[in-house]
Specification:
By secondary structure, the protein is of the alpha/beta class. It has six helices and 13 strands. The structure holds fe (ii) ion (FE2) (2 copies).
Length: 271
């Protein structure tokens, strides 16, 4: 018998560079105990210099209180994953890649109160490279024999809003929640679908507030406006934006009972 009929899960959007990591640290220091989060997920694909996830930065996120780190299309910018895969115990990568790619695409976590949570990470195919197999069928494979756990959370790392909604509709009634990552922009469309699955198009970004998706404006603007190559750098100064999603989930039904977006700003530490 579970001691509590509910768990509270915090999901943090793509963590971009040093300011993103600082934002996660500050937010969790302030809220993790106070708001009684039972489980924390963060997308770490941009945690190291904006591209990839080093072992040190993975460990930093775990030490801050993240329980599961998801990834995305920047997975191959993370050489540590290939050299120290056994150290990334609580990290997952997109499911729909070659089976030889390090890490699993889906993991089950058991909480102290006995609740079991499956977290899956899957990659879209519209306006985003890298997926090797059909993301919808990849999710079918994961779910086909799942009697337990009843709490199923899906990080759909995708660009196109329609593809994200279609994944949520495809999994409606079969999983607890489908939330998007990758665009670095939080959407204001949280909702419960007809068969009970929670959906949010994109959780957003943790990173520099005064930036283009976490990058310094100069390089991004030059490359986009002129079409010429330009140095793209993560922006490391000024205010921090923290974007996330809080789900209160029934451990009896596996359904989201309450939800709330997180959209906070913090001052960065002086250098
Ligand atoms: Fe990202
Ligand atoms: Fe991405």
């Amino acid at each position: 018998m579970l001691s509590s009929p509910f768990i509270k899960v915090l999901i943090l959007g793509d963590v971009v560079g040093p300011l993103g990591r600082q934002g996660v640290k500050k937010y969790l220091a302030l809220h993790k105990e106070k708001d009684q989060f039972d489980f924390v997920i963060a997308n770490g694909e941009n945690a190291t210099h904006g591209h990839g996830l080093s072992l040190d930065h993975y460990k930093e996120l775990i030490a801050d209180g993240v329980d599961c780190v998801t990834n995305g299309n920047h997975l191959f910018n993370s050489p540590d994953l290939f050299n120290h895969v056994e150290d990334f115990q609580y990290a997952i990568r997109p499911l729909n890649l070659d089976p030889g790619v390090p890490l699993k695409g889906s993991l089950i976590f058991t909480l102290n109160n006995g609740a079991k949570i499956r977290v899956s990470n899957v990659l879209g195919r519209v306006f985003i490279p890298m997926a090797q197999t059909n993301p919808f069928y990849a999710m079918d494979e994961v779910l086909k024999d799942d009697k337990e756990p009843i709490i199923n959370l899906v990080d759909f790392h995708a660009e196109a809003t329609a593809e994200k909604r279609i994944m949520a509709e495809y999994l409606d009634g079969r999983v607890t929640a489908v939330f998007g990552t990758h665009t670095h922009v939080q959407t204001n469309d949280p909702k419960i679908l007809n068969k009970g699955t929670f959906f949010l198009t994109d959780v957003g970004m943790n990173g520099a507030y005064d930036s283009v998706l976490g990058d310094a404006k100069e390089g991004s603007m030059k490359r986009t406006i002129t079409g010429m190559p330009a140095t793209m750098e993560v922006f490391k100064k000024g205010k921090i934006l923290v974007n996330g999603l809080i789900l209160k989930i029934s451990t009896v039904t596996g359904l989201v009972e309450e939800y709330q977006l997180v959209n906070e700003e913090f001052e960065s530490d002086p250098k």
